[in-house]
């Protein structure tokens, strides 16, 4: 049957180890796209992805491969992102596969996200094919990497494929291994339809396009389907596969990865992780959905032009369809007007959402500094959830402020344990225990405030461990902390969107630090602008932005035209994303100064 000739697999790797390049080579070798059409990193369809060189959204593509056994196979290749913020995308694509190609850089070896992704693949019972990539590099050491894969991951690496995605070495061997090692999908073709939605996008003409993995039964145009979670029913208009352009087909059957359209206009009714079944002959139980991701970080998104509020709402609704972990609700700010409080998985996620909104929906936005959710015990016995620091009640009403803690497990070679502990301590971490996993690797466990984790913990962890630490954490509980709200005043006016919450012990230092950063960022005006930080009525830091000087280049006496042009350019760029607050022009970066520590 056709089913025995289907292979569904993903490529997983640490960031930059070469999975997009490998995917490109595979598409080329299978003639899925002609050389002429071939654009570097074809699967990274978003401009943003191409510019940043990172994969954000997963993409599924169908391709045909004629193997050495003379048979032609249909491969469904699902590309996955590498950054931790997007690990929910990884687990989504893995749930649609039977196998995974594990790409490890021959010079870098096993790194943090290699481990994290392998564990996700193992959780999904996937067959793993280890590939050691970049063997063309002079610094490549495939034997060392094999050892790491065996010792640190516990996979047999004796038959790992040695490859260079760049030079096109080992690509056929990888495809052969997909045929021989990855199991064909099973699933009863006669059973009622059961299909997993693993992604969806909104198309102006076709409505919602659902990306699905059919687990049981078949689906074809004209069928009446039901989304089990929402209960909504539709008639299928079209089914097909992406290759990588959409190609209609007569039906999708158990084992297939493809798309379904059904003139779905109501984007609220389709959610990723839901199960599709036959409305006339429904299956008894839905598939296990994906773990629902809870946003970790909240921030305010405001249009620089207040008239664009409705456009922003529509854009967020459309984006949410494509990005299940994004949440939003309306809020207002004295300084910024009407906008939305949005929930994100992390800072990169926040950054990407903002950029997608600006590019794909043509909006100009101000993002306020991210914050976690606080639980406030009030003196009158009540409790208040605070997602926005400026909503914190008056100090006189507060009995205690509780902040979310995470249980963090940091896996690191033992040489770096000292550095990890030093960092965790500095971030108010509470040491739990430390386990040796083998001769080299240690699992260090801490309870750490989430607010410390989301800001720069991961970056600091990476830099202090040469990228070897892998971090995994789960929210555990709220604990009381000595927290205070710090307000920022510009020209003696409180700017609610700049308020933040910090530990009392660090409050004054943070206040001083932020006022001096703001002084550098906010452009001069024709009057002096005082910048102050305050806790309640008490001013804890102050500085002044001196009055205006006309041309920033005036003081450069050397006639270096390059330098002058650069400065003027910088000044022009600085004009973007400004918001007038009272009489002061505040650039976007100002709202992010709160994030920077020391
Ligand atoms: P993300 O999508 O950001 O997670 O990265 P990725 O894993 O997809 O990496 P990508 O394919 O973008 O490759 C990262 C860099 O490594 C690029 O500059 C590639 O040109 C380079 N690269 C990929 N494969 C090879 C290889 O076999 N040899 C050499 N020398 N460079 C390679």
TrEMBL record:
Keywords: Cell membrane, GTP-binding, Hydrolase, Membrane, Nucleotide-binding, Protein biosynthesis. The gene is lepA. This is Elongation factor 4. It is found in: Cell membrane. It is a peripheral membrane protein. Its main location: membrane. Its EC number is 3.6.5.n1. One of its GO terms (molecular function) is GTP binding.
